Amino acid sequence: MHACLVRRVIQRTYCQGLTASSLPGRNDHARDMRQRGQSRPHGVVQGISRYHMSSINNSANTDRKPKIARGPYSDVTDADINFFESLIPGRVLTNPSDVDPYNEDWLKTCKGSSKVVLRPKTTEEVSAILSHCNERKLAVQPQGGNTGLVGGGVPVFDEVIVSTQLMNKVISVDDVSGAVVCQSGCVLETLDNHVAEYDLVVPLDLGAKGSCQIGGNISTNAGGIRLLRYGSLHGSVLGLEAVLANGKVVDCLSSLRKDNTGYDVKQLFIGSEGTLGFITAASILCPQRPKAVNVALLGCESFNSLVSVLKTVKSEVGEILSAFEMMDHATMEVVTGNLNLTCPISNNPFYALIETSGSNSSHDQEKLNAVLEKLMDKGLMTDGTLATDMTKIRAIWQLRERGAEALMVDGYTYKYDFSLKLSDFYKLVEAVRERIGTKATRVVGYGHLGDGNLHLNITSSEFKKEILDLIEPFVYDWVSQHGGSVSAEHGLGLWKRNYIYHTKSRAAVDIMRLMKQVLDPNGILNPYKVIPAE
Amino acid sequence: MHACLVRRVIQRTYCQGLTASSLPGRNDHARDMRQRGQSRPHGVVQGISRYHMSSINNSANTDRKPKIARGPYSDVTDADINFFESLIPGRVLTNPSDVDPYNEDWLKTCKGSSKVVLRPKTTEEVSAILSHCNERKLAVQPQGGNTGLVGGGVPVFDEVIVSTQLMNKVISVDDVSGAVVCQSGCVLETLDNHVAEYDLVVPLDLGAKGSCQIGGNISTNAGGIRLLRYGSLHGSVLGLEAVLANGKVVDCLSSLRKDNTGYDVKQLFIGSEGTLGFITAASILCPQRPKAVNVALLGCESFNSLVSVLKTVKSEVGEILSAFEMMDHATMEVVTGNLNLTCPISNNPFYALIETSGSNSSHDQEKLNAVLEKLMDKGLMTDGTLATDMTKIRAIWQLRERGAEALMVDGYTYKYDFSLKLSDFYKLVEAVRERIGTKATRVVGYGHLGDGNLHLNITSSEFKKEILDLIEPFVYDWVSQHGGSVSAEHGLGLWKRNYIYHTKSRAAVDIMRLMKQVLDPNGILNPYKVIPAE
Known about the structure:
2 copies of one chain form a homodimer.
Chain A: H1 3-9, H2 33-36, H3 78-87, E1 92-93, H4 96-103, E2 117-118, H5 123-136, E3 140-143, E4 160-163, E5 170-173, E6 179-183, H6 188-196, H7 214-219, H8 227-230, H9 233-236, E7 237-243, E8 249-252, E9 278-285, E10 292-300, H10 303-317, E11 321-328, H11 329-339, E12 350-358, H12 361-377, E13 383-387, H13 390-401, H14 403-408, E14 412-419, H15 422-425, H16 427-436, E15 442-448, E16 453-460, H17 465-471, H18 474-481, H19 506-519
Parallel strand pairs in A: 2-4, 3-4
Antiparallel strand pairs in A: 1-2, 5-6, 6-9, 7-8, 7-9, 10-12, 10-13, 11-12, 11-15, 14-16, 15-16
Helix pairs in contact in A: 1-12, 10-12
C-alpha cells in the first residue's frame, strides 16, 4: 500500500477546542466507583487476579496466601474513639455499614477489619490524629480514593483508616507559572476541571480519574497516559506538605519551579505509598491546556515495524506527541468480538494509537499527515486513519481503553503490568503464549508503548490454578532477567511487595528499610505494605 | 506601534537544521575552564562575591568568615597513600602542583589544603576508596568538573579529593527510548555531542557545559536554560548508581521510564551535593533533538507587560517554547555600554528573549509571528525582532549570556540567584535599587523568567563592605518573606548552607539531618557542606 492510499483513508476533518479531558471512554468504567459500591466490576485491574481475593480473609486452598501476622500494635479502645470524636466531631465513622466500604479495595482483592474511619479536614487534624496513634501505637491506614490496584490503600487487619475524602480544597492557582496548590483529597478529575478554567491541565490522566485523589496519585507515583508528554510526578510535583508518623508537619509546599536549598525532601513521599508520611497538600506544575487534539490509528505487520513507527513519530512530531499506545491482534479481536466495537482499518498483527496535543490544529494535522505518508512510503504501516472530530476520536480510544472490559467477557483474567525495554517488550507476550498453548482462551498484549509499559493479560473461562502456575513466577522471573520492572505504574502495596527483589537491588531495599525506620520507628503508617517481609 | 510594524522588524529568514547545542555564546566563557587554569575569569558567578575569597584562608577583616573547625577526621598517612597507590596505580596525585588545581574552586572563592587526589576509573575503585576512607575516618571531597558556584566541590581542609575525571565512558544509548547510560565523569557537552549522533539531546544546558560533568550536574540538581522545556533532573534522570560512604554500591541504574517498585531511592542522590553518596553512573532520558530553533527579542514597557507576554507565549506556542529569558534596561545598558554589543530593537524598560525548538521550522515561525502580532495588538510589546539564522540568533543570545562578563567591567559584582513568584520577581530589584541609591554603579536584574529564576547583580568600582551590608541580609530576608528560594539552581555548598532556613522549614532540615546520619554516620562525605552548622 502506498502513500495515496493513506491519504484516502485519512479523514481530514477539523476539530478545534477539543481537549484531552473531553475524550470519553477512558474514565467510564472507573468513574465514581465509590457511588457504585457493591456493583463495581471485578477484575478491571493490572497485576492481581481474583485468585488473591480470598487469600487473606478465607483460608482458601492456596499456597500463595500471604503469611502475615498482625503487628505489635495496640487495639483501638473506646477512649481512642472518644479522643477522635472530640478532635473531629461528627467525622468519626464506627458504624460497620459505614466503615465497610473503606475496609475493602474496589477490586475486592482484599478486605481488612478496621472499626473506625477518621475524616479530617485540615493538616492540623491529621497531625493530631497521627500524634495520638503514634503515642498509642495504633496502626494507621491512609486512604485516598481507594482506587489502588495492589491492595495498598485498605487495611489488612484493624488499622485506623484516615481518609482524605474531606480534604478537597483547591488552595491557589497561578495561571502564569501554572503552579496549583491543593489539599490531597481533591479528586483528579474535579481538580482538572477546575484548572481548565485557567487554561491549565493537570499533568496526569488515568482511568480512575473520576474517583482517585491527587494525594493518592502522588503517594503511588501514578503514571497514566500523559506521562509520555509531561513526565513523572517526581518532576511535576513542585511541593508537598506531609505529616510524619509522629504528627510532625513537614512543610515543603513550595510553588517555585527551582529550589536547590538542600535535599529535595518531598521526593521521599512521592511513590512511598503512605508508608513514610501522610500527604496533606500538594503543589503541582500544570502545563498549558492543549487547544488541539488529533488521534491516528495505524496498522503494522510486525512488532519491529511498530517500534520503528514510534521512533519516527517521536522524531517528526515529538513536541506534540501526547500518547503512543499499542495493541496486538488479539486485543483487537477481543474488543471487536466481545464488545462489538468496530476497527476502522484492516486487520493487522499490531496497531498503534497515536495522539497529538498542541496549540495549532492545522499544523498538527499537517505534521501527522506528513509522518503517516513517510511511514507508508517506508513500508512501516499498512493502513491508517486520522481522527480529528470527537466522535471518531472517541471510537478509536475505546478500542484501546475498553480492552480490560472486553477481556472480562471471556470469564477470568490474569493481569500483569510490566516495564520492559522495547527490544524485549513483545517477546514476553510471545513467550507466555507459547508456554500456555491452548490452555488459555487468549493471551493479549497492549499498553503504553511510548513508556515501555506492557499490560499482559491472559484469559480463561474460569480461574484455573494450572494456568496461574504456568504464568507465575515465570513472568516475574522473565521480567527480572530482562531488566524490567514488575510494577511499572501500580506500586507494590500488599500484593507485590515480596516481588520487589525481582526489580530492585538489595542495597536499594536496605535504604528503603533505613528510611522507614528513621521516619516511622513504630511502623504505624500503612503496615504490611511496600517493604518486603523480612 | 501596531502589527504591521512588527512585521517590518521581523526578519523572515529560514534556518533548518540548527540545534540548540550549535548556539554559540552560551558556553564560551566557561568552556574548558580546567585548561585555562590560572587565567580563568573571576566573578562570573551567581550568589558569591569576591568578598568571600579570603574568608577561609586568610584572616581577612570580616565578621562573615565561616567559623568552621576541622571535623574529627583522621589525617592522611603514608600508609593511606600506599593503599590508594596499590588500588589505582598511577592515578594518585600527591605532588602539590598537581593537587593544587583540585583544591581551589574555579572562582577562587575558597581553597582547601588536601594533599591527595584520587582518580578512579570504575565504580569498584570508588567503592574500595570510600570503604577505606570510612574505616579510617578520612574525610572525602567528591569532585566533578569543579564548576560549582557555592564552594561545594572543593575541600575546606585536607579532605581526600576523589575526582570523577577518568570516569567518562558512555555505556549505552537507546535511540528509541532515549535512555542514555554513562559514567558520572562524562563532560556535559561531550555527552550531548555524543547523543546528537542519535538525534537525541541531553535535557540540560548550562554555561559550564564544556567543563561540568553529568555526575556533578545531577549531584547539584543543575537547572539551566532547558529546564523550562524538559523539567528538572528529578524527572529526567531514570536511574543512578551511587556508592555510599561505607563503600556499598547502590545500583538503581534503571533505564525504564516507569518503575514503581518501592521508594525511588535514586532521588536521594539528586541535589544532595555528594553528601549522601558518590554518584558513579547515571541513566538519563534524552528527548528527540529539535530540528528547528527560532529566537525572538521583544521590548516591553513594564514588568507586568513582560509577564503577560510570558503567559501569552506559553499559551500560544507552549509546546515548542525552549527558553524565556528576561533582561531589564540596566542589563541592556551594561552589555551594550561595556561590551559594545548592539541591541537590534529600540530602547525599552524590559526585554524578553524567547527561543522555540520544534520539528518544523516554518510551523514554528508561523506560530511565533502570529503570537508577536497578537502581543503588538494588545500593546504588550513595543518592538521586536525574530531571528532564524545562526548569526542573528548568536547576536541576540549574547545580549543575555554576556551579562556577567559585562558587569565585571564595572569593577566588582555582588551576585545573587533567587527563585521568586512572578508577582514579586522584579520588586526585589526595585527594592534593592531604592535601598542602595547612588552608592552602587548599577543594580541589574536578568534571568530565567519562565522558571521564576532571578539573577540579581549589583556593581561598584571595587568591593565595598558598606554596599554589601546594605544588600545582605536584606535580600535573603526579603526573599524569605516573599516565599522565594535563596538558591534557585546553584545549591548550598559551603557558602549558602547557613541560609537554608530562609527557604526550608525546620522540619525539612531535620529530615535532611536524619538522612545524612543514616547514610553517612561518620560524616565523611563532603563535610561542612549543605547541612547547616548546628
